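Quick one, tokens below. Sequence please?
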């Protein structure tokens, strides 16, 4: 849900994975949560503070354009990369299981719920140019501690 009174800021988000039996949800100022096996648990991002220690998830290598070679180089500088893609990467960031998730091309409906879930879990969500929010056509979500270092590496 976006509020026009708040400059199209996402104020509520829900991501559901019925096959996994999980639902993630967040609302502005109230934290982020996952519901699994009938239990609801508050979630938070990791505390990894160096990109070299980070686990990064991404969709694939298509769509990176001029940033592709920098992104490929970066994969040799981090602890681990995985290609989970889609909503799964972002909820893993919110849960602290992955330190950063990124995709070079996305639509608003792909990002809106993920953005507030990551943000309310204590993370940062921007586009590849560092503009906050889900409206940039691409995304970087992180624990916040490694966000700027990642953006500099792919510039």
């Amino acid at each position: 849900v976006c509020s026009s009174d708040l400059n199209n800021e996402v104020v509520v988000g829900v991501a559901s994975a019925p096959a996994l039996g999980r639902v993630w949800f967040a609302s502005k100022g109230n934290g982020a949560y996952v519901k699994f096996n009938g239990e609801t648990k508050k979630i938070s991002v990791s505390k990894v503070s160096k990109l070299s220690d980070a686990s990064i998830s991404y969709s694939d290598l298509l769509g990176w354009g001029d940033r592709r070679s920098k992104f490929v180089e970066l994969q040799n500088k981090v602890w681990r990369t995985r290609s989970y893609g889609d909503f799964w990467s972002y909820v893993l960031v919110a849960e602290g299981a992955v330190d950063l998730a990124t995709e070079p091309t996305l639509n608003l409906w792909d990002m809106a719920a993920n953005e507030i879930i990551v943000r309310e879990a204590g993370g940062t969500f921007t586009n590849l140019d560092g503009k906050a929010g889900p409206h940039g056509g691409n995304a970087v979500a992180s624990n916040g501690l490694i966000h700027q270092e990642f953006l500099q590496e792919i510039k």
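The helical segments are 68-74, 86-95, 108-120, 147-154. The mean pLDDT is 93.
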